[in-house]
Amino acid sequence: MQKFWNDPVTWGHAGLYLLGAIAVLAVVIVFVTYAIYFERKVIGWMQYRRGPNRTGPLGLLQTVADVAKLLMKEDTIPAKADKALFILAPVLAFVPSFLVLAIIPYGLNLQFADLNVGFLYYVALSGITTIAIVLGGWSSNNKYALLGGMRSAAQMISYEVPLVMSVVGIAMMTESLNLREIVIYQEGWFWHWNFLPQIVGFAVFVVAAISELNRTPFDLPEAESELVAGYHVEYSGFRFAFFMLTEYIYVYAIACLATILFLGGWNAPAPQLDFIPGLVWFALKFACIVFFLFWIRATLPRLRIDQLMGLAWKVLLPLAILNIFLTAVGIEWWGKGGG
Amino acid sequence: MAIRGTGIVKGLKVTLRTLGAKKVTMKYPDVPITMPDRFRGVQYFEPDKCIVCNQCARICPTDCITLTGKPNPDPEKKGKVIDTFDLNFEICILCDLCTEVCPTEAIVMTNNFELAAYSRDDLFKDRDWLYENNRNIREDNNNIGAPQRGGAK
Amino acid sequence: MIRTEELLLNVGPQHPSTHGVFRIIVKLDGEIITEATPVMGYLHRGTEKLAENLNFTQIIPYTDRMDYVSAMTNNYVLVHAVEKMMGLEVPERAEFLRLIVMELQRVASHMVWWGTYLLDIGALSPFLYAFSDRERILQLFNELCGARLTYNYMRVGGVKWDAPEGWIDRVKQFVRDMKTKLLEYDDLASGNEILLSRIKGVGTYDAQTAIDYGLSGANLRSTGVKWDLRKNEPYSLYSRFEFDVPVGKNGDCYDRYLVRMEEMRQSLRILEQALEQFPEGGETMGKVPRVIRPPVGEIYVRIESPRGEIGCYIVSKGKAEPFRLKFRRPSFVNLQILPKLLVGESMTNLVTILGGIDIVLGEVDC
């Protein structure tokens, strides 16, 4: 896709881009469908259950049925809600989540936009979703939704700081924010991948990322046992589906990002294993991260909001800054190239 | 707040071990569940055994049983035979007291527990329905322990 | 200045963490509670009034439905009160069966508490772990008395059913398995740092406050008061068995958690001894008059239910029905401290504290 960038815009190119976008959307929706299925299965297995197994063979159509149900539900808007904002919020949540996928490189030449500020682009756009969540909570005119929305805003803003800071180390080593170059930099054996020299950064990134995703143990905005469902308590049907979709697309995006930034993207763990296509390696690493997220969800209880804030500002941020400092010292002493 | 993480790791190990463990859920609607013999399900009623002593109706804590008798059609015999026997299953709490006091085991429990109905009217069980409910009848009814057997109030 | 105002938030009766149909109206300043008003009665069925028109055997099924998580102890308190009033002898075998089912029930009840409490705090799995093991207890009860929740098992003067073939062995097997299961529970949750940070130092009160509010059970023992009716006023056969009464120190949610976890272990210990000493034969029903008519007078009997001191007060005029029947329900009494504990806490701690008290709404509203 990159090669069209400098050409004049024609109908043909626009059409190609459109087709590409639809292809990504299809991939993402298939992913979300089966991520939800997989999540329910994994959590079920971890709880002596079988997970969904009634709809379709092995329950494979469970999510399809769920979505079909959501689509057929009555579209309710509370009487006292701010109608325009209420309708806008799910759209505003979904659009940036889809836009961030443009910069993800799945392989050396499999990418939509090769931005030189790739990571910043991700952070900037994903911030818009926060606004949508606050908006959704506010416009519902429901106290639980409002509390959920406010919590979400506080949480996502707090955790974006350590998230970005944790990646600075990588940017310093690679001297680039371009995701493709970051992966190319990690070529070679698996100890060239960033997660070893940047182990502190990796830890901070994982914690901050789970928090950004609003998943257990940081799922306070939608803490079921306290706020019933948090910001989307008044949403139903298709609008609710969009919030769900957004959430899982971010799971997809963050898992991709972690793969790219820390686990060497499409690189094989050893040069001898290069005959296996990069996409397979990418998918494997990606699947491990997604499984880890589900595993965490099946095990851990939820933090309290003040502890959550404390963790972000008192633990993760100093750690991330320390990591930057250590990286700088490392580069100064040993030069770049993975130590 | 110090997070050492050892407890979290232990917890993660437990869930990971469970991932491969034997599942405990049952495939219920596909594989029916057999209840133990003592299980208390909807009652079975045998009109021929009933001597219209009215004890079940009297012991019922929720007054869900109503019955009427009529004189025995056989003039040779004394006593009454059952005419109508209605059990309002909407309010029956399956406490087992009616079968406990019944001196002739005319009313006994069954193991049938699938009692959902679409209409409240379906929950009004009459004599014929209860007589036809003759599957999985409880074998051991243990009405020996009844403290108020045969006793009038 | 920005204009700020207090938020009046209605929690319940359909809130997922109020453990039923309980409602609290909280005034929030931000996320901090400045005032909490509990509203109860959504599950009120008038058990005590209904009982005035029922004879004592008929009241037993009603007690099942008070604390439906622990129906066996409820059964026991009623039949025990009547027996004491009439001076009835209960055969040893029946008393053993009663004790075994009550201790099994205590384990089952604490499991429900453990699972739902961790669910309140946000962990999904413990709930299903606890329920899959509780299922075994319910299955044992089902084999014994034909119901899984509303047992109607005990009768004045004995129990309705003798233990079926092999039942005692199955209980023994269960006790053995459960001991290792409890270790797994500890691994899964008890040491979890997030859990500890959530419940340590939350909802603290001292021993004097607990006594002033009439708290009992784990809520009282967590403050360090060693008060367990099984030890202090032994009823049934408890004086025959060795067991410890676990007590806490700080009176916070964490101590209540530890006390309940330890109580499960102690119950298993009692069960082990009771199953070992279980008599070979004997009656399960004592000599009881045809119609149960307690003599004129009144009596108050109390026992230790999983939630605390459950009491039964009967006034008899010599009839088959009680003149007045009153249950002292531990959930109801323990709940009274809630408004005091909630002031100054956050919304999140509301759930932690309410769950820590361990209420059953069927018992609160009765």
Short synopsis of the structure:
Chain A contains eleven helices and no strands. Chain A has 339 residues and is mainly α.
Characterization of the model:
The complex is a heterotrimer of chains A (339), B (153) and C (366). Chain A is mostly helical and 339 residues long. Chain A has helices at 11-45, 62-72, 83-99, 118-139, 143-174, 179-185, 199-212, 224-227, 237-262, 278-299, 305-334. The longest helix of chain A is centred in the N-terminal third of the chain and has 35 residues, at 11-45. Chain A is globular and about 65 Å long. Chain B has 153 residues and is an alpha+beta fold. Chain B has a 3-stranded antiparallel β-sheet. In chain B, strands 1-4 form a two-stranded antiparallel sheet. In chain B, strand 2 (65-71) and strand 3 form a beta hairpin. Residues 145-153 of chain B have low confidence and may be disordered. With 366 residues, chain C is of the alpha+beta class. Chain C has a single domain (6-319, 327-364), classed as Cytochrome-c3 Hydrogenase, chain B (Orthogonal Bundle), CATH 1.10.645.10. Chain C contains 15 helices and 8 strands. In chain C, helix 2 packs antiparallel against helix 3 (71-86) and helix 4 (92-121) packs antiparallel against helix 5. Chain C is globular. Chain C starts with 6 loop residues before the first strand and ends with a helix. The B-C interface holds B 1-8, 10-11, 13-15, 18, 24, 35-36, 38-40, 59-61, 93-97, 100, 109, 138, 142, 144-145, 147-151, 153 and C 54-55, 57-62, 65, 125, 129, 132, 135, 142-147, 150, 152, 155-161, 164, 184, 187-197, 284-285, 288-292, 320.
Task: Annotate the secondary structure layout.
The complex is a heterotrimer of chains A (339), B (153) and C (366).
Chain A: H1 11-45, H2 62-72, H3 83-99, H4 118-139, H5 143-174, H6 179-185, H7 199-212, H8 224-227, H9 237-262, H10 278-299, H11 305-334
Chain B: H1 6-19, E1 43-45, H2 55-59, E2 65-71, E3 80-88, H3 97-101, E4 107-109, E5 124-125, H4 127-132
Antiparallel strand pairs in B: 1-4, 2-3, 3-5
Chain C: E1 7-11, E2 23-29, E3 32-39, H1 47-51, H2 56-64, H3 71-86, H4 92-121, H5 125-145, E4 154-155, E5 158-159, H6 167-190, H7 193-199, H8 207-212, H9 218-221, H10 229-232, H11 253-277, E6 297-305, E7 308-316, E8 324-328, H12 330-335, H13 338-342, H14 347-357, H15 361-365
Antiparallel strand pairs in C: 1-2, 2-3, 4-5, 6-7, 7-8
Helix pairs in contact in C: 2-3, 3-4, 4-5, 4-11, 4-14, 5-6, 6-11
